[in-house]
C-alpha cells in the first residue's frame, strides 16, 4: 500500500498516480480520552484497517496526485530519531569540511561513537508545505534519507526481529542549519523534517537495504547513493534505537544521509526520490 495524508488531513490510498479518499476508515479507530496515549493511532491501527482501506478505495473517486496537497504521512509521531554520519563517504565529507563540523568533535565521529539524536516533532511537514529558512544569514543544508516508520511498540529489539516492527517507509529530508550548536537544536526548526510523499508498507518494499536514493536542487544533482552503503543498516538502527528508547507507533527513524550535502536558499526547488517509494518536489522559501 501507498498511503498518504492530504489536504485537510484526509487519508488517501495512492495507486497509479491517483489518490482515492479512504478517510471514512478512520472512524474505525478507537475513541480516546485525555490523557491521550502517545504515538500515532492510525499507524498503530493500520494492520486492522488494511482490508477496510481496500474496500473504501474501491468505492472512492480517483483524484490525480498533482491535484492534492501532500502532508506528512505520519500525523503524530512521538519522536523523530536521526542517525548521524551513517554513510562512510559522508563521514569523510564531514571531517574534511569545517563548514559542516565547526570543530565539534561529536560531528566528526562515526555513528557508533556519536550515537543517535532527536528532532522536535514540531519540525515535521509534508512535501507540499515546503521548507521555510529561518536563519538566512547562516548556511542551511539539504540531507536526503530513507525514513523508517515504526508500526508497534518496540523495546530492546534484536536486529533479527527488527523489520517486523516497521509499518512502512517514506522519503525524509533532514534539513540542517550549520553552526556550533548541538545537532538536535539546529535540526528541529519548523519545517526542517520533510516526510513524504506517502508511506509505503513493507510488503511493497521487501528489500529496504538496497534502495537507490537521490536529490537534486534546481535540477543539479547533489546526493546519490544506495542504502546498501549504510554503516548501520535498518535492522541494526532499530536495535540501537530501541536499546535506548521505547519506540512507539508512528515514530520515525531517519537512517542517515550520504555524501553531497549542500546549501539551499529561498527560491530553490528540491527534487528527492527513493527507489520503490517515489519522488517528491519541495519548495524552499524565506520566513
Features:
2 domains; 287 residues; single chain; alpha+beta; 6 helices; 17% helix; 19 strands; Fumarylacetoacetate hydrolase, domain 2; 32% strand; five-stranded mixed sheet
Helices, strands, pairings?
Blueprint: E1 2-6, E2 10-15, E3 18-21, H1 41-59, E4 62-64, E5 80-82, H2 88-96, H3 98-101, H4 111-114, E6 117-119, E7 124-125, E8 131-133, E9 140-142, E10 144-150, E11 166-174, E12 176-177, H5 183-187, E13 193-200, E14 212-217, E15 220-226, H6 234-242, E16 252-254, E17 262-263, E18 269-274, E19 278-286
Textual characterization of the structure:
The protein has 287 residues and is of the alpha+beta class. Helices cover 17% and strands 32% of the residues. The chain has helices at 41-59, 88-96, 98-101, 111-114, 183-187, 234-242; strands at 2-6, 10-15, 18-21, 62-64, 80-82, 117-119, 124-125, 131-133, 140-142, 144-150, 166-174, 176-177, 193-200, 212-217, 220-226, 252-254, 262-263, 269-274, 278-286. The chain is globular. The model has no long low-confidence stretch (mean pLDDT 94).
Specify the biggest β-sheet: 11 strands, mixed
CATH-defined superfamily of the largest domain: Fumarylacetoacetase-like, C-terminal domain
Q: What is the element string, with H for helices and E for strands?
A: EEEHEEHHHEEEEEEEHEEEHEEEE
Stretches where pLDDT is under 50 for at least 5 consecutive residues are none
Query: Roughly what is the average pLDDT, rounded to an integer?
Result: 94
CATH 2nd-level architecture of the largest domain: Alpha-Beta Complex
Q: Note the overall shape.
A: globular
Number of domains: 2
Please, how many helices? 6
* CATH class category name of the largest domain: Alpha Beta
Amino acid at each position: 500500500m501507498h498511503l498518504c495524508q492530504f489536504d485537510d488531513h484526509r487519508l488517501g490510498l495512492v495507486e497509479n498516480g491517483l489518490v482515492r479518499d479512504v478517510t471514512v476508515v478512520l472512524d474505525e479507530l478507537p475513541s480516546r480520552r485525555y490523557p491521550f496515549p502517545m504515538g500515532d493511532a492510525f499507524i498503530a491501527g493500520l494492520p486492522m484497517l488494511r482490508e477496510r482501506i481496500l474496500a473504501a478505495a474501491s468505492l472512492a473517486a480517483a483524484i490525480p496526485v498533482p491535484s492534492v496537497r501532500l502532508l506528512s504521512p505520519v500525523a503524530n509521531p512521538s519522536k523523530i530519531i536521526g542517525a548521524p554520519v551513517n554513510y562512510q563517504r559522508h563521514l569523510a565529507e564531514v571531517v574534511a569540511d569545517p563548514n559542516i563540523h565547526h570543530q565539534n568533535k561529536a560531528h566528526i565521529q562515526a555513528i557508533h561513537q556519536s550515537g543517535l539524536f532527536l528532532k522536535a516533532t514540531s519540525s515535521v511537514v509534508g512535501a507540499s508545505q515546503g521548507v521555510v529558512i529561518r536563519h538566512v544569514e547562516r548556511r542551511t543544508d539539504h540531507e536526503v534519507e530513507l525514513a523508517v516508520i515504526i508500526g508497534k511498540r518496540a523495546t530492546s529489539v534484536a536486529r533479527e526481529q527488527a523489520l517486523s516492527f516497521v509499518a512502512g517507509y517514506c522519503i525524509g529530508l533532514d534539513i540542517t542549519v550549520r553552526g556550533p550548536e548541538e545537532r538536535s537544536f539546529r535540526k528541529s526548526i519548523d519545517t526542517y523534517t520533510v516526510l513524504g510523499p506517502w508511506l509505503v508498507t513493507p510488503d511493497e518494499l521487501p528489500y529496504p537495504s538496497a534502495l537507490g536514493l537521490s536529490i537534486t536542487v534546481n535540477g543539479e544533482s547533489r546526493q546519490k547513493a544506495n542504502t546498501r552503503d549504510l554503516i548501520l543498516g535498518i535492522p541494526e538502527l532499530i536495535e540501537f534505537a530501541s536499546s535506548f528508547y521505547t519506540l512507539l507507533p508512528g515514530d520515525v527513524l531517519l537512517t542517515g544521509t550520504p555524501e553531497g550535502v549542500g546549501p539551499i536558499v529561498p527560491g530553490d526547488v528540491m527534487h528527492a526520490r527513493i527507489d520503490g517509494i517515489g519522488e517528491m518536489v519541495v519548495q524552499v522559501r524565506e520566513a
